[in-house]
Design a protein that fits this description.
This protein has helices at residues 16-33, 44-51, 111-124, 138-147, 157-165, 169-192, 199-212, 272-291; strands at residues 38-41, 66-70, 75-79, 86-87, 95-100, 130-134, 152-155, 217-225, 244-252, 258-266. The protein is α/β, with parallel strands linked by helices. The strands form two sheets. A seven-stranded mixed sheet has the order 4-5-3-2-1-6-7, sandwiched between helices. The chain has a three-stranded antiparallel sheet with strand order 8-9-10, with helices on one face. A hairpin with a 5-residue loop joins β9 (244-252) and β10 (258-266). α3 (111-124) packs across α4 (138-147) and α6 (169-192) packs antiparallel against α7 (199-212). The longest helix has 24 residues, at 169-192. It is elongated and about 70 Å long.
């Protein structure tokens, strides 16, 4: 450590290519069991799980993208940031092409355009019979069904979540690392939470620590200072002695594995009633830990 600079945390060395191959084998086995010859995936997490490509740009951007992939792993990716088709855009990824999608707009606003593109992609891979669909807006799916009336489109969002829920050992390592990173961000926020500091400032300390440690994606930073409601957005509240302040921060670490932590901090000595309530919550937490 030099001066006031905090050393960046060290992320574990994991063979991400091998991990991607393991995840794809699991996906492939599940597709065969369900007799699915293709998948259409829209959410950034599902796309990342299958082919390790980062598509999420903002929290609301899931339906700006789609991946069409067959049972052998050949795929095409639809993105909003290209006006042209690009062949073999990511050598070694298995993605044969990037295709343009309506730019920076929800897919439900352009169902016919999306349906035509997806139908063309499915057609290039042969005549699909059963296609698993995850995260695709109903308007797009309806238009796609009209273009391909002989194809069965099967909802697989819950199945994909179940597939991802069972973690491989390398995934556990990356989840633990993301939580270590986010825990450091939490500590930075607690250290910054002093009398005279605004809610913006202690959240900024957390986010700065996340990026300082090399996160891949920032997901959220919200808080509650003297608000009785569930509105957790900062509003410039200045901390005073005796305050209890709650905050919740999250990030995606190396490999796209995430952490989400909520904490309560105190400025000086908390009100005795708040301290008792906090102690009861901690006791309940420990009961849950013991049962788990």
């Amino acid at each position: 450590m030099s001066g006031s600079r905090i050393e960046q945390m060290e992320w574990p060395e994991v063979d991400l290519a091998a991990l991607r191959a393991q995840r794809w084998r699991r996906t492939q086995e599940w597709m065969r069991a369900e007799e699915l010859d293709h998948l259409i995936l829209s959410s950034g997490d599902a796309i990342r799980y299958v082919c390790d490509l980062r598509t999420r740009l903002t929290p609301e951007s899931d339906d700006w993208h789609a991946l069409v992939i067959d049972g052998d792993g050949a795929s095409e990716l639809f993105v909003p940031w290209s006006d042209d088709s690009i062949e073999d855009p990511y050598p070694g990824s298995g993605v044969a092409a990037v295709r343009p999608a309506p730019a920076w707009a929800p897919a439900a606003l352009h169902p016919r355009t999306w349906a035509q593109g997806l139908a063309a992609s499915l057609g290039r891979a042969g005549r699909p019979h059963r296609v698993g669909v995850e995260g695709l807006p109903g308007e797009v799916l309806g238009a796609l069904g009209e273009l391909l009336p002989d194809t069965a489109f099967v909802p697989v969002q819950a199945a994909m979540l179940a597939l991802r829920r069972e973690k491989l050992p390398e995934e556990v390592v990356l989840l633990e690392a993301a939580s270590r990173c986010n825990s450091r961000a939490v500590t930075a926020a607690l250290d910054a939470g002093r009398a005279g500091v605004r809610d913006y400032d202690f959240l900024a300390a957390a986010v700065a620590r996340q990026f300082g440690d090399g996160i891949e994606f920032f997901s959220h930073a919200v808080c509650n200072v003297r608000k009785p409601s569930g509105d957790w957005y900062p509003y410039g509240a200045e901390l005073v002695d005796g305050d209890a302040f709650m905050f919740d921060v999250g990030c995606y670490g190396v490999g796209g594995y995430a952490s989400d932590i909520a904490r309560t901090g105190f400025v000086g000595d908390p009100d005795p009633q708040i301290a008792r309530a906090y102690a009861e919550l901690l006791a309940a937490l420990h009961v849950g830990e013991d049962l788990a």
